[in-house]
Amino acid sequence: MRRKLLQTKVQIKIIIFIFTSFIMFLLTGCAERTNLEDLGLQTAIGFDLQNDGKVLGTSVLHHFKYLGKSPSQVLVAKADTVKGFRQAMNLKTSKKLVSGQIRIALYGEETAKKGLIRFMDSISRDPKIGTMLFLAVAKGTANDILSYPYKDIENIGLYINETLEQNINGEQIVSSTLHEVINDYHTDGQDFVLPYLIREKDKVNIEGLAIFQMDKMIGTMKPREGFYLKILRDRFDAGELELVLPSKELKKSVKGIEIPKKININIDNIRSTSKIELVNKEKPEFDINIKLTLNIQEISEEIDLNKPETMKILTKLINEAFEKESNTLIRKLQLLQTDPIGLGCLYNHSIRDKKLTSEKWYPLYKNAKINVHFHTKIMGAGVMD
Amino acid sequence: MDINIRPKPYLLFNAFHLIFIIFSIQVGVGLPGFQRIIVMESGHDAWISVIVAGIAAHLVVMVMIATLNRYGSADLYGIHQDIFGKWLGSIINTVFIAYLVLSTTVVFRAYIEIVQVWLFPELPVWSMAIFGGLLAIYAVLGGIRVVVGVSVLSVLFTLWMIFLLYFPIQYAEWKSLLPIFDTSTLDILKGAYKMSFTLAGFEILYYIYPYVKEKEKTSLFTHLGLLATNLLNLIIMVVSLVYFSEGQLLKTIWATLSMFKIIQLPFMERFEIIAISLWMLVILPNAILPLWAATRGMKRVFGFKQKYSLHGIVIIIFIAQMLLKTRDQVNMFFDWFSNKGFYLVFIYPFILYVLVLVVQKMRQKRGLASNETKAPSNKSSN
Amino acid sequence: MFFWKRKKSQGDNLKEDKKKNELPIHRQTTVEMIEMLKKHFQHSNDLMYRHLKDHQIVLVYIQEITDADKINQNVISPIQNLDSKHLSNEVLMESINVGGIKSTNDFEEVIQSITTGWALVYLSKKNSGILVEVGKLRERALSRPENETNVYGPQIAFSEALSTNKALIRENLHNPKLCIEDLLVGKVSRTKVALFYIEGISNEENVNTMRQRIQDLEFDSVFDAANLVQLIEDNSMTIFPQLMLTERPDRLGHELSQGKVGVVIDGSSYAIMGPTTFLSFFQTTEDYYVRWTMGTFIRLVRFLATIMSIFFTPLYVLAVTFHYEIIPSDLLVQLGQTRSKVPFPPILEALFLEFTIELLREAGARLPTKVGQTMGIVGGIVIGQAAVQAGFTSNILIIIVAISALGSFTAPNYMMGNAIRIIRFPIIILAGLYGGFGVGFSIVFLSVHLLRLSSLGRPYFYPLFPFRIKEFKDTFIRMPFPKLAKRPDYNDTKDEGRFNQHRANKKKDIDE
A381, B50, C4, C266: which sits with the fewest CB atoms below 10 Å from its CB? Predict the structure, then answer.
């Protein structure tokens, strides 16, 4: 009985406890509410550095409407700091501007050439902003791409996001999420590349890749070069490519009377793994060995693929074609003094006790010897023999 | 005050719960952001520091268990009383109670800091502190069984988050770990020293030891729990090192939470928000185990009822949290706390062990000498 | 909250009553006897008495609860055939053709028996009377279980009569070790309660606790098991039931054989079982009737449904109110569009819709089955549609609320289903006020709360705490029977083994 009484006492205490908690909930008020429909969700932001040193910010917002399309709204404002224009923009819209749903950050070409780190730093400092948003460079100004009234595109921010996502998944371009870019930036001996976007009338296209040295844009790259960059950098899954091969060595296998000088072939299902080795530490020399498997999808001439010999020659030719184009790309990068393959990073992690900075690396890199070897294996040639 | 305590049988818990207790009290507010502090010292060899610190922790636990084994069923308060006598013992016990109370404060304040930065910048400290305080009171009022139960649930309900590391691993750059042993031994040791804040917590064994049912298995399960934490720390450290570049890691305050940011599921993104919300369950054992130990101490040393001292201590903790206003103050307080904590947690057990050995040896001699005249006086210590 | 025990004055009254009643039957004449009984029954009209054999014998009974045929044929006519000169208690007991017969001199017992349908046969000036069981069983036919329906397994439920229920349990467990103890509960209602356990399996501590709790009750009236269960629970300040109610005799039989203690109360078609864990409220006997794969699957579905039911709506509220970042962009447009027309903050919207669902459920439960069904459809579709079109709620929320309502109905136990529905509300409110922090707080609070509960003094959140991974095979999942060789550790049974596992799992070589 006494135990029960004690229990009762404890239980009364619990009632008091629950009661006080309830009072507390009411007293403490609550966190600041940000109801979804009251928010202006930024999906894309663009930055253009003006001549007077101010930042021209453009942001694309979601505007929610009950039925039908939800139109996007574009706001433009100028400010001294990267974050400053949000305040100015808030004055121009009925919704509260928030940054948690930004999917893409776009920089004007001129801005990119002057250096991006200031912008990237301010974005990555904000805990509200995710690290999976894409960075890209706009040909011309970012403002131009974002504020153009497109006919078919509902929300340009989401549209660019989907375009990039689709192409990255399809292994067409190198992924450029905020995390990866910042990561590359902070890695000594590794530079990043960003997608290079262009507006052609009512469409936005990926024109290629913008090449960066540190945080400054120094050139561009064609999508095809981007493909090679991707193969050289890391593993590659399922892409497709068109190659032009000289026909000289294939003469015997080609059926038909007239043999053209060049044979076009289309390969797909390309899978590759690249292995980069530092051969010489004193005078940097790298061996890049790339194992490649692919399917032949289409050949412009009729070739008897059943002969093992033909296959051998074809393999050799493909290797050579790949090597040639890769070497061209590497030469270009070396001349530009930018290292998106990350050879410097590898060098840095292979030597001890020497703190390699990017400044020290670029001269070394320019003169480094880089040997590329492709090891192709043709898996098949489609469903028809 | 008796040196040994014999709790009622229904209050005892099975020894294997120690795995959960040790794991849950070590995993807490240190884990979201320990990477930066270690990497500052030992660069990309930080994972070696984690291993070194882990081994050190195992050593400390060995000494702690050896000390406890010299008594039958004593806690730290009893041992102090036995070694230092009533007055000095009480003073030292008070220091330890203060340490426990401070560690609860640190845990709550650190969590509030995380919530303020990541979720609600404008939510005042005191409102969250009230929530924490109420929870702590409610849990500790349930006694040792509830306190141990909370640590079990905390582990069971949050362990699945380890699998989320799958996402950052996809972005891993494994060569960032190379070359191994690039950092000097001194820097690695410095890094290991910085781990003390993350690793601290296992000293709770000093207080809960009397409540373990199978005392002979204490050693096994404590070490297992410690090993689990060390593995977890190691995994997280390695994943952070390969996911972030070194320069980036040095700038990231809460690297573990930043890693959760990249998770994108078809129905949910930005997992760090969920993780921070659930983190309250992770930190609760960190808060209530020391709190419980502190109230035990108040009872053992000063004879206060646990019920009453609990409320008093929670109010003190609440006020202490309010005093830490800015980030700078919080950081300074944490640094001060972890520096002092290093000596109490990692160094003191060795000193105590030596003292216990010496005192017991002396007593034995004296006991032998006076054996013929009177009964041995060290009855309580056996 | 045993508030009924603290009123000392009431308890004292009862003791006085007892003293008064403790008069033995002592050599009274039949007329004196009748006067005494009349006085005790407050001269109630339905107390019938009949003198037989020249006022030597008196027969006393209550007309409405006794069987007139039985009295006439099996009691009166044999007595009338007796020789008037050699009447004695022994002769009477031999001649009366009724199975239930006992001799007593305890007046208290006489009164108690008469109220429960026995008749007193009193031979004048003797030390004891004879009690004859002539009760009329007013009971309905046994029916199918209403609230715990199974596809497989016996389709029979307890009825309101204690004797029938006892029989049903006996039919399930033909075991002489099955102990049935009769107890009495309620100062006014005087309800008969039977305590069940299997000697040699059940832990004595559990039996004693249960018996003690029932005996200690000083509540005035107890009419139903659901009533009794609230009085003997460990903690009445929680919304979680700590003792299980079941209407299935096979369930009770199963649990008794696993070492639990059962209580059946007269007038209730539910039996109480204990001690119980939180997780066992999500198990049914059907899990054992279907194959183990199916049983495991159903159990996992139930747990998932429960978690969804509790956290789905709060998740919506927190995402739409505070953490818009966690919504993927594809979903975001949908959510934003539906929310844009709603004039209320998400928390009010969610509470409003949850409340509507509760209305529908409650109204459906009170109405006759056929009307109830129509109500559900009309309410669900019409109100839902109208609310969306009027812009009161977003249709995504309607889906979420409907799913969580469905989820709460998957809990096989009605009480637990109710509890789950109720705890959703505070969590929604916390989610609306503090977002993720609030939901995190409620998860932690619930965990601590469940840890603090106990059932008959045993931990309620078993096997999560104390942690027993071995018991997971029959809690979260249901392993095949050869793996379930031990009775649950939780019941702390005297005899642990259900069968010889060694023999069952003996491995044979190929072609042996």
Answer: C4
